[in-house]
Design brief:
Layout: H1 2-15, H2 19-48, H3 52-71
Length: about 80
């Protein structure tokens, strides 16, 4: 996230006249991504508190698909 933040901040600072406007644009661009990451973290945390037998059975059955679904937004589309 820190590297993503740095890239976006650099882009907005280059393309705007004032730091104030740049920071507003930066916040607007980063908010959706930060919210998505927080939500993914909440979902993952809920899974880790399940009883191990339940969690492990679910991961064996659907683990690959769950991983693909969770990280799909990060995979560039051709």
């Amino acid at each position: 996230m820190a590297l993503e933040d740095a890239v976006v901040l650099f882009e907005v600072l280059q393309s705007t006249e004032t730091v104030e406007v740049a920071l507003d644009r930066y916040a607007a661009r980063r908010r959706p991504r930060a919210s998505w990451v927080q939500e993914q973290s909440r979902i993952a945390a809920k899974a880790w508190v399940l009883p191990p037998a339940v969690r492990n059975a679910a991961l064996r059955e659907r683990g690959d698909q769950l991983l693909r679904d969770r990280y799909h937004p990060l995979i560039p589309m051709p």
